[in-house]
Amino acid sequence: MTICEKITQLFPIRKTAAQKRAFRQWVMGEMSRMGYRARVEENDNGRQQNIVVGDPVHAEVTFTAHYDTPATILLPDLQIPRNFPVYLLWQLLIIGGMLLISLVAGLCLGLLTGNGDVMIFTFFGAFLVLMWLQLYGFANRNNVNDNTSGVATILETMARIPEEDRSKTAFILFDNMEKGRKGSKAWARDHLEAQHTRFFVNVDSVGVGDVFLASASSLAMQMPQYAALQQAADTIPGRECRFHSSVTTRVNSDFRSFKCGVGISAYRQVSGVGLYLGDLHTARDTQADQNNIEGLAEAFSGLVKQL
């Protein structure tokens, strides 16, 4: 059984405090068995429980992923990072659908009560509830790609780095990315030196698709680790790796909490749309290609060896 399969079997949902606590205990035990010392850093007055291995303030590279899983309101979180018109159209469709549902609810109650104020209150209330559900609502049942694939990639990478190279790197599993990157933002605020000067590579939803897209900040692109990452990524068999500025990509993940951050996700190439990733935040998120996970882990361990 692969690490990704084991996490999927034991901890498919990591949303409540109890679910996340059980996962943290398990994953820190796995890290300990690999010879690492993991710790939980409580940030934002204890509201964010981030798992940290090593010394990110001095490491040459820190690999990260978020371990929490999202809510769902049955609408897929389509990722279209390089085609802004199509991305904007999908976002407008989602907002339009939510407005339509809210309008129908408001009209129904308004007609039933014969009160226009009730109609207006219901419309705005329903819209706010739908917005809230996207962040804090019902837990999504399946989260294999988002982001069990990223957590598995971190653990696979850790297993491949020899003991003599471990001082060069650090690892963080962030809490509450699905609630607006709260975990990584809080950790970054508490470690401003690392936030502004250290090289971070974040993996998020890397399990589906044969094209890896790396989104990098301008500062990250100037660092020698960036060129080494490009060389290492080119060694992944059967996968294309594309590197772009984070300014020109519509990708929102924990790497954006850092001045020298790079975010990596996997996509399919779809005619007329470009890079595309669907099924996130829905019950259809049930797949992760082990070749993607192992390919990235090999590339990351190779990167560490070069540093």
Task: Name the assembly state.
Answer: single chain
Tell me the fraction of residues in β-strands, as a range: 15-25%
- Give start-end ranges of low-pLDDT stretches: none
Q: Average pLDDT across residues?
A: 94
- The percent of residues in helical segments reads 40-55%
| Topology order in helix (H) and strand (E) letters | HHEEEHHHEHHEEHHEEEH
Concise synopsis of the structure shown:
With 307 residues, the protein is of the alpha/beta class. 45% of the residues lie in helices and 17% in strands.
Structural commentary:
By secondary structure, this protein is an alpha/beta fold. It is 45% helix and 17% strand. The protein has helices spanning 3-10, 17-33, 84-113, 116-136, 144-160, 182-190, 192-197, 218-221, 224-233, 290-306; strands at residues 38-43, 48-53, 61-66, 169-174, 200-203, 211-216, 240-245, 261-270, 274-276. Strands 1, 2, 3, 4, 5, 6, 7, 8 and 9 form a nine-stranded mixed β-sheet that branches. A hairpin with a 3-residue loop joins strand 8 and strand 9 (274-276). The longest helix is centred in the N-terminal third of the chain and has 30 residues, at 84-113. The chain is globular, with a radius of gyration of 20 Å.
